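=== RUN LOG ===
request id: a7f3
mode: sequence -> structure
chains: 1
length: 387
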Amino acid sequence: MKSRGITPNLLLGISMVVVLTTDLAPTLADTLVWQLRSVAGPSPRRLHAMAYDSGRGVTVLFGGFDGTSYFGDTWEWDGQSWSQRAATGPAPRGEHAMAYDSVRGRVVLFGGRDFFSNVVFRDTWEWNGNNWTFRTSNGPTARYRMAMAYDQNRGRTVMFGGSDWSRETWEWNGSTWTWRSNTGPPGLFAHGMAYDGNRFVTVLFGGSDGGVNSGQTWEWNGTTWLQRATTGPSPRRFHAMCWDASRGVAILFGGFTTDLVGDTWGWDGTTWSELGTGGPGPRNDHAMAFDSDRNVTVLFGGHVGGGVWSGETWEYGAGSDPNPIMGDWNGDGLVNFADFEALALCLAGLDEPVDGMCVELFDFDFDGDIDLWDFAGFQLVFEGSDE
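=== RESULT ===
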């Protein structure tokens, strides 16, 4: 039992925490920040694909295009640096799709193309962390610019759309592709998808439906597609999406509307919220994956305009600083009201376990929970005004 005294200031703070916890939950997203983590690793490129291997704690990248050549290399990001893992496996390509099968511990890759060789692929490959294995060339027809996401509830990799504005939905169970639907969203390519692990649906946004950018949001529940929204991010294609499991939102960044854009949006299952325009510059044909061990969205590469490809690695989250300051949730080097709002949301009561990032940044007494004594510690480092 802790015996430290509770001061009048602490009592006032407690009442503020109660109000903030009740009324300011949506502001937690406002404390998230983009941070440039690296300019070393894979060569600058676009049209690559990424997936997060939660079994080994790395983001896997394959392929892409640099304006001259297609790549067939495999890289992994461990949160600190990139390592090239393979130069063999699937043929060099871009515009393919990847997803991580968390039940079998495999990254699944399908399709894509080599424009210069006039080859469109229909092959399925899997990466086990050491080697690529060719699985089949049966199933979906050859295509590119489709999207995939892994439905962890049903153990299926879901694929929708692709070149020629396909409106097919296919699922891969680890051994066989199964055609599931030809209804739902219009025929699309260059759209984005992410699997919502809280509501057990695959979320789809945007894409091109015959030359016109879409601004529609759809969800696949394993049986049918349901249109959920027609408002939110501006209609676009060539963007990237992933599911932020720690905050319960699908994250969308960038793409092409009538020009390159660099905005960040979050879908909570009901509405889209713009999370900011800071961070990576406008781009398209980049790739993203969510690192569920460090609770950050990882972004690499893309076309940044004028025929220039990026070799930057960015991360989006509260804990993207590898050397965080206690109490500094948004990583701006200060402990102020923005961080206090996040503390209010992390406060879980005495001896209740809470999210790992809350403990990392607000557990001032190092007892594994966030309680009123940690609020007292926060007071000691609090710097006041955000100005």
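=== NOTES ===
The two ends are 39 Å apart (CA to CA).
The first helix runs from residue 8 to 23.
=== END ===
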